[in-house]
Amino acid sequence: MNATEKKAAYNLADYNSERTSFSWKNIESKLELGKTKGGYNIAHLAVDRHANTSLKSTLAFRFIQKDRSPQDYSYSRLKEETSRFANVLRSLGIQKGETVFSLAGRIPALYITALGTLKTTAVFCPLFSVFGPEPVFQRLHKGEAKILVTTSALYEKTVKQLEERLPFLRYIILSDLEEHQSGKVLSWSRLMKEASSDFKIPPTSPEDPALLHFTSGTTGMPKGTLHVHKAVLTHYITGKFVLDFHQGDLFWCTADPGWVTGTSYGIIAPLVNGVTSIIDQEEFDAMRWYAILEEQKVNIWYTAPTAIRRLMRMEIKPREKFNLGALRVILSVGEPLSAEAVLWGEHSFGIPILDNWWQTETGGIMIANYPSMPVRPGSMGKPLPGIEAALAEVTEDGLNFIKEPGKQGHLLLKKGFPSLFRDYLHEEERYHKCFTGEWYLTGDLAKKDSDGYFWFIGRADDIIKTSGHMVGPFEVESTLMRHPAIAEAAVIGKPEASIGELVKAFVVLKPGEPTNEEMKLDIIGFARKHMGPAVAPKEIEFIASVPKTRSGKILRRLLKARELGLPEGDTSTLEQT
Amino acid sequence: MTREHIQSTIFELLKKTAPETDPHSLRPDENIREALNIDSFDALQFLVALNEKLGIDIPEEDYSKTTTLGSLTDYLEQRSR
User: Is A350 exposed, middle or buried (0-12, 13-18, 19+ CB in 10 A)?
Assistant: First the structure.
């Protein structure tokens, strides 16, 4: 195939012409939405629709178990299992709009829970299994979890101690329990055995809530970002245009469903496009990953800079050691991918790694490098057809749009696309603060070059991005303050080459407490126990006082500037102590 | 380098990585990361620290041989010869 033929074979063959002709209405017609009563339901589009066609025996999911043996789910089996779980939820009294949570590793029960919940028009919310009890409590509490699906080990380790503080939680279903433990702690297999595999998806409107994802803010506890069934249009079209799904493709999204990428692209987008998803149940292991790419003949691989940097550390040439001939597209998300990594991809795999940008709030990919478009290494790419992105200075009087190339500004997206979040649960004011007129303020800073490529600069606020996950400093500080020796705490993201930023805490100890190594370890241990390793600080520094504004707000940017040896900027509002 | 020396270094460094745990309670065939709740960043730091402390190089390609206390000790013992 020559270069022109190759380009024509991509779903998005010509970016500019697609951008001009694109309309969300056309996508709705293509998916025949609204033709049936359950037509708008994500689970209908992802599973049931295919299970009634020639795709019924096609694999929807292939789980790679820890011993590397596969566990397969065809579209038809997935339809039955998710229907069974939908019936389980019905029998337990779950109503439309109520929340069902999962806290588990990448096991089949998690995926069945997600899709079965969507079938009933209840709301699905995944939690990262590495979270400690405090982050789990905050999210279950705020999301008013009615049912939680988890494993016996995680129940014992994380959930059991929280039960009394969660009055809304009616049932806990354990995926590996043989028989019901009590009226509240139930066995997954027992419930599934008793449930029918027939389930009729009820009428679902495009604006019915479907997914809840928690993300961190600078102030306050995590925000419950709510998405509706209509978001599936973005999942579908980004699967086509960015991931370039074609029938028969094998796709591997390495993200965990505890984060939005692992749900939007680890569950929904590939299914809506009728392709097969590979799910590895083991954690990152470079040689295992290459072996999976080879053995499973993965065509499209969606991963993250943290993993790519680990692979770059190795001296092996992947194409010499492994047969990676099936690999057609490699993509990355989570944090900006450096130009060096893009070029390493080209050198190591013969194709550049395509970076893209989006957020929990946008529900799906918004700005991307497309397989058919020349890649600018280090750039976020260009906005998806159907998405309008702009840069502006945000002032008290409103937005001053930036027209000149290369000038940094706040990255904005025009409202009105299907997967834009509809609410921060129970925090209307916080939600409205994200919008000015018809624009959503992403909180990210970027610039645009003269050819329309966007370039990521950083966050406009204090949110920490570590290993591709957002961590809110306030959430960490609140837990640290509960340590008996700590008087005050301030938390920042310290730049770190392999994970972007690491969580660093500056602490002021109570008078008389020793500032030694044992104390540091004690604080780290305390934080890990309550928050888990994904959120707990990796580094502790003792300081005499926490810099604050006169109104008492912690000046984290000042601590960060000091950490980096940068100018401290405007300190006119600094509290004098 | 004795097996005892290797194991005591492993325990010492694991305790620094996950101070709230008791690494001595690890069974030889237990997955260290799962048992002690260690994420991939901390796991990497731990292996780098082991390398520095024992002077034994552990290339990324071999990380899968270091997942349990038993396999990690065997691996380091073999490499130290």
Answer: exposed
